[in-house]
Amino acid sequence: MKINIEEQLVKYGYLPEQLPPIFSSEKFFENYRNLLDIPQKNACECVSFTISKNDLSRRNIKIPNPAKQIHLFNYVLSMHKELENRFSNNRHSLSNPFYYLGEIYEDISVFNVPLFREKKPKIVKSTYIKNLKDKMNESMGYKYCYKFDLANFYDSIYTHSIEWAVIGREEAKRNIRVKNDNLGKSLDELVRGTNSNETSGIPTGPFTSRIISELLLVKINEELEDLSKIHSIDFKFMHYVDDYEFYFRSEYDVHKLKNKIIEIFESYRLKINLSYCFIHITRLGMLKVNMIIILKSTIRKRMSIH
């Protein structure tokens, strides 16, 4: 199966899928190689607008200047194998930026761009049902779920933390004045160039922001995994972009690790949205509770008969 990942990323990954079909980046893709010849000078501002998020709030969307965004696209395409390798072992994510067309990792992979998935559903299928199954399997045997999302996720990402995620925080700090490019440092510089050189926040429109945010979360997930070993508490977790679910065996374990989890996110300057943060019994846990209630009721009835 032949899929042009260049076309997939540039043609379908520039404009957000929330825009109506009249907005198209087809011409942008046709001419993007010419845009690569434009000298990179000053950083550019994004075009900003809002879309409805729910009944009470709106979501900010930013579309970068194409002359700047094209260099970020070009770099991601040149590094897509390294990026793919970094995402391949992240079993906690339900929002991997890569989609695997075969049964095993070595088979063909493409970018999991929402707009491309919408246009080519026979090639890149929806992962909704698979994600539900994965969450069910992961939560099996765990009674409590600690659920939250990250507040203003893309707008809160500190761009220098991208390098922290790639080579480590201390190494990145030593690297500040050294002309030593790496994946994280290059992505930091390129994404800032699309967003007025701001270090706080990345544009919420293009698919490159999904790739960058997932790269950051890969590192955070590694630190979250370490909590289980450090505190000898058995738990599992999964996330879709910034929506996290942690599965615990007891409510005591939830409360013991809750603040530690928050501290890890805050160390990367990310905040948990406390208004959407809650603890509940998992579906399987609820089923178990209901079965116990039914069983006890049945035993009482039989005892009353005798």
Question: Would you kindly provide a written description of the structure presented here, covering whatever features stand out?
Answer:
The chain has one domain. Residues 287-294 have low confidence and may be disordered. It has a four-stranded antiparallel beta sheet with strand order 6-7-5-8. A two-stranded antiparallel sheet has the order 1-2. Strands 3-4 form a two-stranded antiparallel ribbon. The chain is an alpha+beta fold and 306 residues long. The protein contains 13 helices and eight strands. The protein has helices at 5-12, 26-35, 66-78, 80-88, 114-119, 128-139, 153-156, 161-167, 169-174, 183-193, 207-231, 251-267, 283-305, and strands spanning 47-52, 58-63, 98-100, 109-111, 144-149, 235-240, 243-248, 278-281. Helix 3 (66-78) packs antiparallel against helix 10 (183-193) and helix 8 (161-167) packs antiparallel against helix 10. Helix content is 49%, strand content 13%.
Number of E strands:
8
Main structural class: alpha+beta
Q: Give, in spatial order, the strands making up the sheet with the most strands.
A: 6-7-5-8
Count of structural domains: 1
- The whole-angstrom Rg is 22 Å
Overall mean pLDDT score?
A: 87
Number of helices: 13
Shape: globular
- Gap between N and C termini: 69 Å
What order do the SSEs take from the amino end to the carboxyl end, as H and E?
HHEEHHEEHHEHHHHHEEHEH
Which regions contain 5 or more consecutive residues with pLDDT less than 50? 287-294
Percent of residues in beta strands: 5-15%
- Specify the biggest β-sheet: 4 strands, antiparallel
Helical content band:
40-55%
Pfam families: RVT_1 (PF00078)
Organism: Lysinibacillus macroides
Protein name: Reverse transcriptase domain-containing protein
Domain Reverse transcriptase: 114-277
